[in-house]
Amino acid sequence: MARWxxxxxxxxxxxxxxxxxxxDIVWSKVEGWRDxxxxxxxxxxxxxxxxxxxxxxxxxxxxRFHVEAxxxxxxQMPYKPKVDGILEYxxxxxxxxxxxxxxxxxxxxxxxxxxxxKKSAGRPNTKRGCICHFIxxxxxxEPSVALIIYNQDKHVxxxxxxxHGPQDKKAAGTRAMYAPYISEDLRLRVLSLLHVGVSVETIxxxxxESVERQGGPCNRDDLxxxxxxxxxxxxxRRSTYELDTDDAISIRMWVESHPSHVFFYQDxxxxxxxxxxxxxxxxxxQMIRFGNRSLVASDSRFGTNKLKYPIHSLIxxxxxxxxxxxxxxxxxxxSSGDALKWMRALYKRVHTKDPTWKLAGFIVDDPLxxxxxxxxVFQCSVLICFWRVRHAWHKNLVKKCSGIEMCxxxxxxxGQAVSKVCRGHASxxxxxDIMEDLIDSSxxxxxxxxxxxxxxxxxxxxxxxxxxxxxxTCAAMEFYHNQMKLRxxxxxxxxVYQRADWLIDKLGTKVHSYFWLDEYSEKDDFSRYWRDxxxxxxxxxxxxxxxxxxxxxxxxxxxxxxxxQDQDIAHTVWNPGSExxxxxxxxxxxxNLCEHVLxxxxxxxxxxxxxxxxxxxxxxxxxxxxLNCPPNDSLIRDHAVSLAVHVQLLLNALVDPESSQTTVxxxxxxxxxxxxxDQQRDVVRENSCTKESGDGVGHDAPGGIGGETAEEExxxxxxxxxxxxxxxxxxxxxxxxxxxxxxxxxxxxxxxLVDTELDMTENNPSEGDAFTSQDGFEDDDSxxxxxxxxxxxxxxxxxxxxxxxxxxxxxxxxxxxxxAGPSIVSTTVNSNTESNETFPDSSSKPMPVExxxxxxxxxxxxxxxxxxxxxMEIKRSPSKNLxxxxxxxxxxxxxxxxxxxxxxxNETSExxxxxxxxxxxxxxxxxxxxxxxxx
Length: 935
Description:
By secondary structure, the protein is an alpha+beta fold. Residues 666-935 have low confidence and may be disordered.
């Protein structure tokens, strides 16, 4: 038993890669049978196939392993829970062994009846006496763990010589140089092309052409034979979906024959509904690749009116933001609330493959979706997508309303109602008013009253409690929905739609093949076979990004967009700037968001004639709620500042990687408390000083993280934003203690040796209203458009961080808690100051305090003298002194004042400012803080 105690004490190894080999595992040696020493390791039993694929893809000796022997205990057989008991035993052997059909080779007695064939093709060529093999045991004590015993890991024969692969000189020029079978990727490619109707001859012709272009075969895939492709085509042609006349029995037989494609199965019973979860190995890989730290969306009602059971699709978005289905769940409509079981099974399957996998957000399209279960299983934020409702409204408007102006008016009012609901300014009454005002449109209003008005209560509740997904997500969902209609619902005999086994078979064959080919880089070689089902390309969002602004003309209530294909055609877009706009193109007439509507939205938001998107407004409001916290709430404040610093470091890394690395090191040192005050000052000086010519951010990239000048605006290339990043801050955020002493934030893009706190308010149009844009839009509780500055994605974190000075103003005005604790006066300098003799009236808020670290400044006479001074020392001259209370405590450049700081601010404002300041004029006449390097 000592052997098993040692084995069960080993760690279960689960490498975070899709495939892994013996080189990725740490092997242990334990006492084996007959005093032998075994090399053993423990891995999850569900990842044995991943180990097989990784071990077969050995570059030095590519091969494939087959099951040479298997013993499995029947599930119904009773057994005692013994420590050394085995549930399953599998012997995997290299496919080039164990028999040796070479001349003079040894064949086992049980295989002596083999009769050699005249042709060289077949199994005899692959048998070369390789002794490489390993054993997999599934233990009773740990059924979820596989014990691997790998003693013979060398691909050699019994003489110890290489018997296949590049190391075997006798295998040169033969198929023994490569793996015995084609790769999984090539097999999927061949099957997918056959499923969508490409002929065998065309597949082989394109394959041979690619092999010739590369100069001959170099791996096993290049040796693809016509015979293999023909055999696969014959198998597909002879297959049938109807395995039994009874639909339920046919489904059960399919599940038994495709265990690797099923992640959850629940048969009909008196208490549980039928549920089947389908996910192929390729779909699992796509979910791990594109879903990690990203979004997964749910299309929950496809085929409700035609199919026996609707399809619930889970999709991810690739690099082009196109939807890829990663799982299909087939279940009756009434079982939509029982999603917790299959979600847990799916999450366990993904985590078994990659333990580090984590979602950033889950998008639902059903207001009755179980958001609590989604948060419990996937541990992420939940968003809602309104695309299905908008799509249905748009399609029925075009169908039931004859006049385009009436369609535009109804769509405009519906869009305004949804916007008010999402912003929390309206309820179901706004839709009642619409039905009264538009009673003349009887056809559409009857449809709206019958179908949508009874559901508006649950939709309003969902829209007001969950963040709204972006228009880019809506465009991708609509594109996926259209692909599914063309690829699935195209049967000539509509009676098959009422059989679930047909649905399961077609999803796993043809539909899966089309989506696999969408990601295939060389699919254009088969363009002559393209049909409607092959529809692919960019989504409307991506197409809109390619339309230039010059082809858009705004003309009051509508806009004109000139077609890129035909310059003589101009599409008319009514309600410009709204996602509920009406366009006359064919894609919009189907109820979809077209590229013309999205382009007009972009143009209108860029010129300030339309409101920001609802999702962006919700995102901005979440940041405002986070930043309008009492100053003593250090957790939220530190998080906000750390988030801004993280964005700044990313920007600095793009412009000046070396300096950015120094900043990160300094922040870590200060955070850990390992640097003394002198060391901090030296390191900050080394990081902050720049040459007069400006090799940093100041001259090459003006603006920095929050310092864009009055003449420049940060460009906004994107039109919308998903608010999922609210709950997903980037990793590696720094604490406040490690931030303030580093001059990472610069004014007007220039790094200076001023020990400053954040000041993001210097470019605001007015001091009294910190959230008023230059266009006059205010962020209040009304429906007035929010500030334009917020309609940007990548840099939104940095621009929304308020300075502690404004937090103090909000605290004084009563916006925060009255017992907010000590106020913080930021140590910043206003870069908009025009003269060092005249200063703006500081009676409205306390005068900021500057702290300059000036060490070893060289005078004009060449003598170096120590000048470690601060502006506080200058202002404390006998005639003009800023009084400091006894309780003032300087900390990292911030002075914490007591609660009677108002008196100090008033006393400061009554006195004139000193003429001696640390301001110097730059080359363009602007006032700038004077640093140790600028002298």
